[in-house]
Design a protein that fits this description.
By secondary structure, this protein is an alpha+beta fold. The chain is built from ten helices and 15 strands. It folds into two domains: 252 residues, Jelly Rolls; 69 residues, no CATH class. InterPro entries: Cupin_8, JmjC_dom.
Length: 333
């Protein structure tokens, strides 16, 4: 595995289109080292907890709890019919107290607050800890827990992940390694995204032989407090929190318009409607998708008068909504 390419000496003001639209991951050393949250965490876990609670009201957070024997690996149960953890709603101060109580345990229970919207739960936090994403309007989330492991998965948005307490290791796989990652169910997932079934710490190469090839293409980012990682859309990432107390802030944004639906919906419906067709019909639909989607260009609808191209023209918000309404009507027949 190769290290992720690094850029050093940047400040949030240095984030530009070259970085924020990169198709390769970038490790931005020390990008948010000046944040008060980072400085508090460098003092102590208690100082970091106190800093977070300055902004907290009474909105419960969702914490995932797993027994000590899962060793921080949030995953499926043995037959992939459910999961090896349970979600609970709890006040943030209770979660932070549990993390402190189990800090010295050799085998602590796994505690993980994932993807919690900062503005909803910690209003005012971003006034002191934030980055300028050049006019983008991201979803900002916070992740809090002890030593945890999240299996390789992808996210459709671009991602800027900032370590503010503890250390993290991201192991990244490019999108073209999908076949070698042995992905689990699409419609039963631990946190909304399909995940690799391979245990990165103990890969079973008899069961998952192609994972060796995935490892040949992997990149690794070892992150310290204040470091940030730019993760392009659709890159698979296995995430490990390496200390008894870890906090990460991340920003998600899409390069598509805000009114566009997620392509995941198209994938799932294509599976339901195309995958099991006879081979000749699948080939015909492959050609339609190639022509109208994956290789669409100015010539695709050049033979149609511009005013009549409708959804074959560059999509506007109104046309996108009209297409969605038509699709919903068809689905509800």
């Amino acid at each position: 595995m190769l290290p992720v390419a690094e850029l050093k000496g940047l400040t949030p003001r240095d984030l530009n289109a070259r970085i924020l639209t990169s198709t390769q991951p970038l490790l931005l050393r020390g990008l948010v080292a000046h944040w008060p949250m980072v400085r508090a965490a460098q003092q102590s876990q208690q100082a970091a907890s106190d800093y977070l609670l300055r902004f907290y009201g009474n909105t419960p957070v969702v914490a995932m709890l797993g027994p000590p024997e899962i060793r921080g690996r949030f995953f499926y149960n043995d037959d992939i019919s459910g999961f090896n953890f349970r979600p609970v709603h709890a006040p943030l101060q209770g979660v932070l107290a549990e993390l402190e109580a189990h800090r010295a345990d050799a085998e602590p229970p796994a505690i993980y607050v994932g993807s919690t919207t900062i503005d909803a739960v910690l209003p005012g936090f971003r006034a002191e800890n934030d980055v300028d994403l050049q006019g983008r309007e991201p979803l900002a989330s916070i992740w809090i827990g002890n030593r945890t492991r999240i299996a390789a998965h992808y996210d459709a948005p671009d991602n800027l992940a900032c370590v503010t307490a503890g250390r993290r290791r991201f192991t990244l796989f490019p999108p073209d390694q999908l076949r070698n990652l042995y992905v689990g169910p699409l419609d039963l997932t631990p946190a909304g995204q399909p995940i690799s079934l391979v245990d990165l710490h103990d890969p079973d190469f008899t069961r998952f032989p192609r994972f060796r090839e995935a490892l040949e293409h992997a990149q690794v980012a070892e992150m310290e407090p204040g470091d940030a990682l730019f993760l392009p859309s659709m890159w698979w990432h296995h995430v490990e929190a390496l200390e008894p107390f870890n906090v990460l802030v991340n920003y998600w944004w899409r390069q598509s318009p805000h009114y566009a639906d997620t392509p995941t919906n198209a994938l799932m419906y294509a599976i339901a409607t195309i995958r099991d067709l006879p081979p000749a019909q699948r080939d015909a639909w492959r050609e339609l998708f190639r022509h109208y989607v994956f290789e669409a260009d100015d010539d695709t609808a050049a033979h149609i008068p511009p005013a009549s191209r409708r959804m074959l023209a560059p999509l506007t918000e109104d046309m996108t909504r009209a297409v969605r309404a038509q699709l919903i009507k068809r689905l509800n027949r």
